Amino acid sequence: LEGRPCQIHGDGESSRDFCYIDNVLQANLLAAVAEGDGVTGEVFNVAVGERTTLNDLFRLLRDGLAEVEPELAGAQPEYGEFRPGDVRHSQADITKISTRLGYRPSHALAEGVREALAWYVQAQRAQSIAA
After folding, report:
1. What pLDDT does 4 receive?
2. Are 27 and 101 in contact (CB under 8 A)?
3. Does residue 1 form part of some domain?
4. C-alpha to C-alpha distances, 115 to 20, 61, 67, 69, 119, nearest whole angstrom
5. C-alpha dist (Å) from residue 10 to 7, 123, 129
6. CA–CA dist 35, 104 (Å, integer)
7. How far is CA 29 from CA 37, 69, 75, 87, 102, in A?
8. With pLDDT > 90 as the criterion, what percentage of the chain qualifies?
9. Residue 23: inside a domain
10. What residues make up the domain containing 49?
11. CATH number of the structural domain spanning residue 25
């Protein structure tokens, strides 16, 4: 949004289980009203349950922003060194929260990115108008 290049550490093929905030809110609400054994005092993983590479995340962000700023359609990330100690792949196991609380992620990553980008673009425009 500020026109700066996106930096990715490594080759971009590291992956994570990215989670949109609405999924976290959903999980917290389910936990708040849950009753029964195996719920109170338990720790649950909240995620989507799918890995996404940093390259795929970059493309989702770039393509979404290009709808608003067409000149961004050709943007490419800048790759840097792998960060020491960085985990190559990470995916949360959401079996426990799904089984005990009935959690099913309401937002896939692409949907969450679209909603987040819309909010950030609107906020940036509002800030520009106010300035």
Report:
1. 84
2. yes
3. no
4. 9, 11, 13, 16, 6
5. 9, 31, 38
6. 18
7. 17, 36, 39, 30, 11
8. 75
9. yes
10. 7-130
11. 3.40.50.720
Number of domains in the chain: 1
Q: How confident is the model at residue 116 (pLDDT cuts 50, 70, 90)?
A: very high
Output the six-digit token pair for 16.
Answer: 């994570």
**What's the one-letter identity of residue 106?**
S
Q: In degrees to the nearest 10, what's the CA dihedral of 112, 113, 116, 121?
A: -150
Is the pLDDT score of 88 beyond 90? yes
2 within domain boundaries = no
Angle formed at CA 14 by CA 116 and CA 113, multiple of 5 degrees: 10
Give the max Cα distance, the chain.
54
Mean pLDDT score, 19-28:
97
**Three-state SS letters, the chain:** CCCCCCEEECCCCCEECCCCHHHHHHHHHHHHHCCCCCCCCCCCCCCCCCCEEHHHHHHHHHHHHHCCCHHHHHCCCEEECCCCCCCCECCCCCHHHHHHHCCCCCCCHHHHHHHHHHHHHHHHHHHHHHC
